[in-house]
Amino acid sequence: MNPQTVVSIGREALTMVLLISSPLLIAALVVGVTISIFQAITSIQEMTLTFIPKLVAVALALLIFLPWMMNMAIDFARHMFEMIPTLVG
Q1: How far apart are CA 53 and CA 9, in angstroms?
Q2: Which residue ranges make up each domain of the chain?
C-alpha cells in the first residue's frame, strides 16, 4: 500500500463524514441563527431558549435524512471492503 492510497482513503473518509453530518449541522445552524435573530429583536436573553428548537430540528433532520445517510455509509463501507483485495497485494 503506497502513501497515495492512504491519502485517497483518508480523503474519501473525511468527505463521507462531512456529507453525512452536513444535514444535521445545517438544520442546527439555521435554527440557531433564527432563534438568535429572534432574541436580538425581542431582547430576550435566555440561554436555554435555543436548546429545545435545535434538538427538535436535528431530530427531524435525522428522521428525514437517515435513509440517505445510511445509504451513503453503506456504499462507502462496501467500497472499502471491495478495495481490500487490491490493497493486500
Answers
A1: 37
A2: 3-88
| The three cell numbers locating residue 81 | 471492503
pTM: 0.82
CA atoms within 13 Å, Cβ hemisphere of 84 = 6
pLDDT digits (tens, 9 = 90+) for 48-70: 888 999 999 999 999 999 999 99
Report d(CA 25, CA 23) in Å as an integer. Answer: 6
Classify residue 48 by its DSSP letter: G
**Cell numbers describing residue 2:** 503506497
Cβ atoms within 10 Å, residue 48: 6
